[in-house]
Specification:
The complex is a heterodimer of chains A (about 475) and B (about 120). Chain A has helices at about 10-20, 30-40, 50-90, 90-105, 135-145, 200-245, 295-315, 320-335, 410-415, 425-435, 440-455; strands spanning about 110-120, 120-130, 170-175, 180-190, 195, 260-265, 270-280, 285-290, 340-350, 355-360, 365-370, 375, 395-400, 405-410, 465-470. Chain A is of the alpha+beta class and about 475 residues long. Chain A is rod-shaped. Chain B is an alpha/beta fold and about 120 residues long. Chain B is globular and about 30 Å long. The chains are: A alpha+beta (about 475), B alpha/beta (about 120). The interface between A and B is medium-sized, with 28 and 18 residues.
């Protein structure tokens, strides 16, 4: 119970103000307290009210201090909780929501926004409380303050930034170690009496901590996305490799009068390399080496389509050019994505040594003559599958005993070393000049060793396929080899 | 996100359910305070404050809720919270509101708890 003054309630007010002044309190700002004291004092017995007022003020101050202490605990707990959330969930949108709401709440702001860079532009990612920090504002801040947004709240208890849609605003960058990721903004710090006040340096520090957490969340989410994408790619490559394994021939056919070798090496990105053999009637033997555009499953499926088309059409086509045209029409009709194929199709007459071929935009094949000369068989038309009305001409050459034909895909000549130099056609030609005396199976295998040596530590991204064909003579006469 | 706080009241004898939607800041807190004051003056002594649609609360809003709680305690009334987000639940516990008002998972549980108070 409050002790009342002898003068009654009206006489109490000056005395209360006097005591409050002595205690360093602004009585004018505490009309509610004064009113309560007057109300209570009006019915109280005589006595000195000073001790009571002091006790009430002390109690109120202790209550305020406890409240502020709890607010600091809440801030620490919030930072801790957001840290746990970053570790526990990878949903970036939820994390950004959580960070933004906690930022607004703990700075007693009315509104806030979290802007992130997307494709080079700063766009609103999450917003709360109406229009704050338009993209134009955000861009302006970003341009004006390269690396650090000019926010005077860091230096003094005032906020120097005023933006559209708010009275006072506090903005901090969201920054990873290497780049600016976005900005975190809060606006209009409110008070109990309804006014808007300046942000404190402590608000800026707290917001910067949340911005750091946002940066961590964004980077973590990005790494997670990349890991998921890599996993998806790995799975896709496994599927593509499985398709490719099913399509490529497992054995080199045993053709009297011919020596054959063929190899395919898959690299990090399984591509669309394809080779095949087609033993035909009348001492004829056909083969193909092809490279379809693209990588992974789509490329593997196109290889599958190509292989089917070749096997279906080869018996009916009268010439290699007609076969390639038929295959082209088939691919053009069924390949919606307008993928294309380069291919070298050869029809070899075993008895005469004549080679008829069509090269649809394919790398020039190489003939290493027994006498040491080298000849290139260049393309006789466009790649297959691009232009509907494409036509291909056919070329002929002769292979004598000991001559070798080398057909390959660009994964071989475009294999790169760490200096980004390509293996190239010159090294390929020089290699075949050097290995003229080797059985072609060994010549094929050692070429891949040569490429590995050349490439060193550089990763290769394109499949490498090689097909070697020679008319049998005493040096190259060997049985068919299993792949 | 919706920012301004809206309040809806359902009265059942001397018990009322107050459902909020939006930010409990100064404005939102005062809206709740006005609503509860009206209920108290109308004879309600037990109030369930359902915060299912409130995702954010600041310390000014909390201080107003504490004042409301104190006023209810002075009048021998009781208040219970329900449907708090985990963040608000933790905030209320840290800031001391849970010392004066029960926190319940559902509105039914909160009503039962208040109904059990003589």
């Amino acid at each position: 119970m409050i002790p009342a003054s002898r003068g009654g309630a009206s006489a109490l007010v000056p005395r209360v103000r006097e005591i409050l002044g002595a205690l360093g309190e602004d009585a004018g700002s505490d009309d509610v307290l004064l009113a309560r004291i007057e109300e209570a004092a009006s019915s109280a017995p005589d006595g000195d009210v000073a001790a009571w007022i002091a006790a009430r003020l002390l109690s109120r101050n202790l209550k305020d201090a406890r409240f502020e202490l709890k607010e600091r605990v809440l801030e620490l707990e919030s930072l801790y909780d957001v840290g746990l959330s970053i570790g526990g969930q990878l949903d970036l949108e939820s994390l950004c929501d959580e960070i933004l709401l906690r930022s607004i709440s703990l700075t007693n702001s009315r509104s806030g926004a979290l802007h992130l860079f997307e494709g080079g532009a700063l766009v609103l990612s999450r917003g709360f409380g109406g229009a704050l920090l338009s993209p134009e504002d955000a861009v302006r801040l970003n341009v004006d303050a390269e690396g650090e947004i000019n926010n005077s709240a860091r230096d003094a208890p005032t906020c120097g930034v005023t933006l559209s849609g708010c009275e006072k605003c506090l903005v901090v960058p969201i920054q990873s170690e290497t780049r600016r990721l976005g900005v975190l903004a809060v606006a209009d710090k409110e008070t109990r009496d309804g006014t808007i006040r300046d942000f404190f340096p402590a608000d800026a520090r707290l917001l910067a901590l949340f911005a750091n957490q946002a940066a961590t969340a964004i980077e973590t989410a990005r790494l997670h996305r990349e890991a998921v994408e890599k996993e998806r790619m790995d799975r896709e490559l496994e599927v593509a490799a499985a398709i490719q394994r099913e399509i490529l021939p497992r054995e080199v056919p045993d053709i009297p009068g011919l020596a054959l070798a063929a190899e395919n090496r898959s690299t990090r990105q399984v591509g669309g390399d394809y080779f095949d053999f087609f033993p035909l009637s009348g001492d004829r033997f056909a083969f193909v080496v092809a490279d379809v555009s693209g990588k992974g499953v789509p490329a593997a499926l196109l290889v599958s389509t190509l292989a089917s088309a070749l096997h279906l059409q080869i018996e009916d086509a009268r010439t290699p050019a007609e076969l390639v045209e038929r295959v082209h029409r088939h691919l053009f009709r069924f390949s919606r994505a307008r993928k294309f194929v380069t291919l070298f199709f050869g029809l070899f007459h075993v008895r005469t040594g004549e080679l008829q071929y069509v090269s649809a935009g394919h790398n020039p094949a190489l003939i290493a003559r027994a006498g040491g000369d080298l000849e290139w068989l260049h393309a006789t038309g466009r790649p297959v599958g691009i232009f509907e009305d494409s036509r291909w001409s056919e070329a002929r050459t002769m292979l004598e005993a000991g001559d070798r034909l080398c057909v390959y895909t660009d994964g071989i000549t475009e294999a790169q070393n760490p200096m980004q130099e390509e293996f190239g056609t010159e090294r390929l030609a020089a290699y075949f000049s050097r290995v003229a005396d080797l059985p072609i199976r060994d010549a094929a295998a050692r070429l891949f060793g040569e490429i590995l040596l050349f490439a060193g530590s550089a990763a290769q991204y394109d499949d490498q396929t090689l097909l070697l064909l020679a008319r049998r003579d005493l040096r190259t006469d060997e049985p068919a080899q299993s792949l | 996100m919706n920012e301004s706080c809206r309040v809806e009241t359902v009265r059942d004898g001397d018990l009322a359910v107050v459902r909020t939607e939006g930010y409990i800041n100064r404005e939102g807190g005062e809206e709740i305070e006005r609503c509860i004051q009206t209920l108290l003056e109308g004879g309600v002594s037990r109030i369930v404050l359902n915060l299912e649609k409130t995702k954010i609360v600041n310390s000014i809003g909390i201080s107003i809720l504490i004042e409301v709680l104190e006023r209810m305690m002075e009048r021998k009334g009781a208040l219970a919270f329900c449907r708090l987000t985990p963040t608000i639940d933790k905030t209320f516990r840290i800031m001391g509101l849970a010392q004066y008002a029960g926190i319940h998972a559902t509105e039914e549980e909160a009503r039962s708890a208040l109904s059990a108070i003589a």
